[in-house]
Amino acid sequence: MPLTTIDNKAALIVIDLQKGVLTLPAAHPVDQVLARSAELARAFRSHKFPVVLVNVVGGAPGRTDAAHAARTSGQSRPTPPPQWADLADELDAQPDDHRITKKTWGAFHNTSLHEHLKELGVTQVFLTGVATSIGVESTARSAYEHDYHVVLVTDAMTDVDVQAHQHSVERIFPRLGETTTTEEIIAMLKEHA
């Protein structure tokens, strides 16, 4: 479903656009994803809409097939470099931006995100970032379950796997909210003033 409107209480949530994550392989050019997310952050700030910048510093402790396969093959989880979790400079983080540091895929689980958005009266959230099928999708699912109008900016996100990205964009996101592009949002914001 394409974007129908921008609520008067909208917020942008940027998922995991941090220095370490941006060095990982991606299905789409991460510099373009980052540039579009930064453009949206500037536009939301200029319209006095909240911007939430999310980074990830760990993972859930549960057992997974992937973790088990890595352990049994003798691999261990490497220690990330010192600036791995730092937000990308291009996002130009501002003092009024709300920051969320998460240890799981989704930005709502065990964080203050929902309380912060509710305190501001936010009714609609726009999501960008990486990875489409992991952090973005998990956050979108939680946002939907928390009764937000969810908007997924599909040209401002990517995944390590093109098929995973496509599955989220084509099969999952239309069930969670509206899908759109950076250009469409910028145009609607100009009319929203």
UniProtKB/TrEMBL annotation:
Isochorismatase-like domain: residues covered: 10-184
Transmembrane stretches, start-end: none
Hydrolase found in the keyword field: yes
InterPro entries: Isochorismatase-like_dom, Isochorismatase-like_hydrls, Isochorismatase-like_sf
Keyword Hydrolase among record annotations: yes
Keywords from the named record: Hydrolase
GO molecular function, one term: hydrolase activity
Annotated SUPFAM superfamilies: Isochorismatase-like hydrolases
Highest taxon above the source species: Bacteria
The protein's name: Hydrolase
UniProt source species: Reticulibacter mediterranei
